[in-house]
Amino acid sequence: MRIIIVGGGPVGCFCAAMLSRRGSDVTIVEEHGKPGLPFACTGIVTKEIFSILDSIKNQDDAVPVINEIKSCTIISDKRKAKLPVHDFIIDRIKFDQNMAKLAKKNGASILYNTKFMKLQRSGKKWLASVISSNSTRNNEDKNIKLSADIIIGADGPVSSVGVSAGLINPARKRFILGNQVRCEADGYFDTGSFEADLTIRKFFGWVVPENKKIARIGIGVPTDGRNKPKDTLKSFLKKVSGRYGKLKIIDRQAGLIPVFSPWIKSQNKDRTVFLLGDAAGQVKSTTGGGLIPGLRAAAILSECIQQGKNYDLCWKKSIGPDLVAHNIIKWKLDRMSDRQLDGLVKDVSAKKVKSVLASSNRDKPLKMMLSLVMNNPNLIKYVI
Fold first, then answer.
1. Please, is 346 exposed, middle or buried when counting C-beta atoms within 10 Å of its C-beta (0-12, 13-18, 19+)?
2. For the chain, what is the domain count?
3. N or C: which end of the chain has fewer CB within 10 A?
4. With b meaning 16 or more CB within 10 Å and e meaning fewer, what string describes 216-255?
């Protein structure tokens, strides 16, 4: 079976590795020249990532951890609370490179500097039109048509594969714009804790330490024209510098974060075109994290292709309920006043709540919410 995956990010590469191990002939089409670039991610993950990668043996070094986080400081207008977590800060560039190596190791090939343009039918097969900017004798771009039985779009929030196959309309999708800088501080960051600042409304601001001197600092705002991302980030950096001293910007990253919709079409009728990861909106609305859901969906898709199962139904049954729960939590947070957020931060500071959070997995919010309400009924006012 010939399969083309458009998008050489970690989700696309992981899917390629899984499919190649199952005997498929897989080619990844990637428009950039190197894996991991451009870099546009906070790089904070839960331990769930190790469980997912256990599906491919001997991959203990696949996740390059640069810092381990034991707490999260939630900040509202007049309150803050330090809550227990167990997260990991990873080197996203190296992680992406490791996933590309994993894909190749299992038999997939990768075409770098190759941009997908459109799909067209050719009998029972698909022809993917691409433009390769790899060096040629005349130093000109080459127009190429690649034939495949199956096309997978792992090509980001505004998926060209999804548009070409008629699965998505970008004008109807909702996005968050993430705007982040890596900064070196005069002071010292708390390497064991990251910050989530709820005063940045409709999403949040974050301070994620790589080490004592360098942190990833950013904000997310809806792309509805009501907010100015640059001004919001500038104001947030000023606030952060008040705690950690003068900040020197090392580099900048920005990118669109899709808002999950349970109604998205992630496959065509004859199950020969599929969307994966950000292209399918497989993202946690509360945090903007798409790596864990995307990797989980990649494993599901590889199995569905090999066994002839309905991918759209399978991933929505497995991952969908938790992604919907994230949507509900974000919907509630977006509608809280500053005073209500202060009350929430106060209530989650309770000892029983911290005990539940210490043993919970935020990638499984339904189970976590149930445990929280059972241990502290006062929290039910925030979920109904």
1. middle
2. 3
3. C
4. bbbbbbbeeeebebeebbeebbeebbeebeebeeeeebeb
Contacts of 322 (CB under 8 A, 6+ apart): 284, 363, 364, 365, 366
Tokens at 183, concatenated: 């900064």
Q: Which domain holds residue 247?
A: 174-258
Answer yes or no: do 234 and 153 share one domain.
no
Whether 10 and 22 map to the same domain: the answer is yes
Cβ burial 114-139 (10 Å sphere, 16+ → b, else e): bbbeebeeeeeebbbebebeeeeeee
Give the Cα separation of 234 and 223 in Å (integer): 17
3-state secondary structure string across 211-265: CCCEEEEEEEEECCCCCCHHHHHHHHHHHHHHHHCCEEEEEEEEEEEECCCCCCC
Q: Is residue 52 part of a domain?
A: no
Domain assignment present for residue 222? The answer is yes
Claim to verify: residue 219 and residue 351 sit in the same structural domain: no
For residue range 297-308, what is the model confidence (pLDDT) as tens digits?
999 999 999 999
In a domain? residue 375: yes
* Rounded Cα–Cα distance for residues 334 and 323 (Å): 16
Q: Is the dihedral of CA 289, 295, 296, 297 positive or negative?
A: positive
* Closest residue by Cα to residue 155 from 177, 170, 176: 170
pLDDT tens digits, residue range 224-281?
877 788 999 999 999 999 999 999 999 999 999 999 999 999 999 999 999 999 999 9
Which structure tokens are listed for 359? Answer: 């043993």
Task: Indicate the pTM of the whole model.
Answer: 0.94
Of the residues 325, 349, 369, the one at which a domain ends: 325
Q: Assess whether 190 and 319 both reside in one domain.
A: no
Strands 247-258 and 175-185: antiparallel
Please indicate, yes or no, if residue 70 is contained in any of the structural domains.
Answer: no
pLDDT at 136 over 70: no
DSSP state of 267: B
**Rg of the chain over all Cα atoms, to the nearest angstrom:** 21
Kindly state the tokens that stand for 181: 């800088």
